[in-house]
Amino acid sequence: MVLFSSHRAKKKVGGRRMKMAFFVVGVIVLSLLFQFLTLNAFISQESKQDEANDVFIIKKNPLAMHATGEQTLQPVPNRTLAIIMGSLRGGEISWQTMASNVLDPSSADLAILIPEDDINAMNSSLYKRAKYKWTFKNYEDWGEAVDLINGTEWNGTGWRKLALEDYDNSASVFGGVEDYSGSGAIIFMIRWFLHNHIKENNLTEKYDHFMVTRSDHYYQCTHNISEFSVGNRNLWIPPGQDYKGRTDRHLIAGSDNVLDALDVFPTFMRSNWVRKKKRMNTEKLLSRVWEEKKMNVNYFDRVMFTTALPTD
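Structure (tokenized):
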């Protein structure tokens, strides 16, 4: 009887242990299942957040990557082009401000149009960054460059003869031609070369905003070209250095009017309103041409100043 009772007690204890083991295993299984479901929900939420972040980045950054059919990432092309004309001056300190305060904020490509004999250009950060690199001949007599313009005659008479008759040597608009002082012919012929490069490369189809400037500007703060309203034939220039006309040192234009804005000397040659203007300067000529072309000239707060190295 005692043995039978002892056996029953052992059997009862064994049953309790078995139930306890099943209970513990069940708790462990439920715990693992809960952790799995929690982890799966977390991963799903992270994936959704990553997708949302990607959409936000693409909307905010024109340089963001977008997926194509096979999820191959391709860069969104820039729609803004900054163009530097003339010899590279001002030095790396100034050029770095253009990179950090103009090119980067604007997500802009860079083009340079420099003299073919500018031997220091290739070592510059601007040259290395430029997507388009163009050169022009540095003429002894820039009248030879003016000769390249088709139809450079006034009323059927050679432009040189009329220039010599109508403009004395102080007329800076012809600076660079023979004995004329100043640099007007140089400035406007470089624009004519640039006009041709933009047209030949079909850049008005590739870019919406254009900045035409010089290399020796130090930009003190952000100058986002892409934020300017360039529709309705709007041009944007900084105030100052206009000398009773419009400054020729910095320009922002759109794809619909940048070619017209650069087409200065050919318009000058075809017109009669500049005759007998012995003191015509570049700023006055630029103002008159833009007026004839019905440009809407606007001003923005100046964000740059001109710099120079001892070797410039």
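DSSP finds ten helices and 13 strands in the chain. The first strand starts at residue 65 and ends at 67.
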